[in-house]
Amino acid sequence: MNYFDALDLPTIRARYPLGPDFLRRYRGMSRDELRAFQDLQFRELMAFGWRVPFYRRLWGRHGIEPGDVRGLDDLEKLPTYSKDDLMESVEHFPPLGDFHGLDAHPDDARPPLVFQTTSGTTGKPQPLLFGPKSREVQSLFLGRIYGLQGITARDVVHSVYGHGMVNGGHYIREAVMHWVGAPLLSAGTGIETRSLNQVTLMKAFRATAIVGFGDYIKRLAEVAIEAGITPGEDIPVRIISGHLGAETAEGMSRIWGGAEVYDWYGVGDTGAIAGEGPDRSGLHIMEDGQLIELLDVDSHAPVEGGALGDIVCTCLYKTDVFPIIRFNTHDVTRFIPGDNPLGIPMRRMAGFLGRSDNMVKLRGINIYPQGIGSVLTSQFADASGEYYCEVESRDGRDEMSVAVETRSQDPTLAARMEEELRMRLGVAIAIRLCAPGDTAEVTQIERRQKPIRLVDRRKES
């Protein structure tokens, strides 16, 4: 069976509409109607999950039997799991672990495997596994988000997502080509295509949209300006869609000549989960296929209101390869209360606000390095957006400092930044000002999709 033979494209399109059909399907639908559709998919997903050894072991350890989970109302009976559990599976059942689910299919219906990995920058790479159905649905969700943001088949899309074994660049290429229909410049990171070459390429082919991680997209604008190329004029970019990190939409728009800037969120395992739309009221969760819970970082209980919590994802559509049922991403965000301005029943969330496994507790306060970057760039125009946090133990107490790039000569800037952080976060954090480019060796901004923002010196003590 090849990739295309394994696809039931008419069913995919009927279940998960995109473009104008997406809004037509869901406008006016109640939360109860949406939940009924989620429940139907969840039951299909659980039937597949019980045939996968990883889940039989995980659920069996918690005393769960098939009759215990009959639908979504029983979801919280199931344990969550994280990347650590997947890597343990890979260690005991190499090379792919026992979570892929391929053996749950009859030999004549076994789907082809789409195989990528995580970057492995913090350890051994994790396999990222997809079948044709799950691959195309996750790509469709991203195509849907790009469409909400205004990207069309008439755009020329420049992508700075990495390729190689990592999922990013390949997945984005498929989403743009298969579900948007736009030509794609697959430049990748600064290692794959040098930054100066990238801006020259964008100028030559009249790129109108850029997709990728905000830190590097901002860096490309600086490279263009240094080369005498005017962003927004010589490179007619009108839309930027990516992961903004510490960079504010206003600052990104300004340096790219007034482009519209949008955020979206997803992880390698799950694909696109939520994206900003024209209403600018937060990220719309693709709840017809992605079931999201927010759990307290410490207690693991569901959070209430607009409290911060770990994003736990169940991919309702992943019934061909690697089912994902209560996967704790350890990414932190919050739900946005109130009705959806688009008139659809789907909830909204803030963007990526940090990682709970990158969290530093100072004097009982949870500090997220990405949150520090957001505060500094939103409050101080002199902060370039490039920074990293450093934590170390001194006299038995954890202390944090932040290296911040700036062109300012203002002798009061560091003290004002320290006071802003103290007022916002409730704890003292030292600021060290750096010249432009001085943090690049630590953050690896030119080489990594996600720059390093935390250096933990406690391990060296």
UniProtKB/TrEMBL annotation:
InterPro entries noted in UniProt: AMP-bd_C_sf, AMP-dep_Lig_C, ANL_N_sf
Name of the protein this chain belongs to: Phenylacetate-CoA ligase
Domain of life of the organism encoding this protein: Bacteria
Domain AMP-dependent ligase C-terminal: 364-458
Keyword hit for Ligase: yes
PANTHER family hit by this protein: BLR5969 PROTEIN
Swiss-Prot/TrEMBL keywords: Ligase
Any one GO molecular function term: ligase activity
